[in-house]
User: What shape does this take?
Amino acid sequence: MWKIFSSEKEKNDETGLPGSITPTDSINEFGQMPGVYKDGIMPISIIGEIEGHMELGVGRKSTKYEHLIPLILQAEQDDAVKGVILILNTMGGDVEAGLAICELISGISKPSVSLVLGGGHSIGVPLAVCTDYSFIAPTATMTIHPIRTNGLVIGVSQSFDYFRRMQDRIVNFVVNHSSISEEYFMHYMLNSDELVNDIGSILIGKKAVDIGLIDEVGSVSDALTKLKELIRLNESL
Assistant: This one.
């Protein structure tokens, strides 16, 4: 686990490496203080756009998946971590990076709870349901739509087949980690009445719960209360 150094001198004396991670570095890069787990709860935030194999342009708020993967592994291996709360306010982003994060979080043995604040759009949808229990704020929104791409497409039929199979991966993951049926999810994904010049659906707060996508409408206190309950149940097994 990372150690918090009170000064640059203490950091250098301890490690001999001026590049060691400081609390400020950790907040800037990961959105949290290193090694600080109140009640054994590790917060992980996904903010802005999920950055995958390609770097996003200057001025675009992003969460880098190569930063999240070590955090999730740490949550699984560190005995100080009893549970994980995943905070989401994302417009989506790289599909494969998002699915990689989903699979990692859904595969940890510690209890986990997600909370959608602001938005959980696109690949943010499977991220919202990858935990043991999910919440959405009353004013938060989620956008469900098919996979899209920009720019030149070479080998149209082959590319279409690839996108179709990737979309199937997303649909299967969401259906297997929530209460929504595949038929119902596809209905909202292919809806042609809500989005201008596109297909898909926008769900606000309670609507995401009503269709079985999210478990409950709630706030951060609700999410923490539920996570502590799951931690107690896990420790009693």
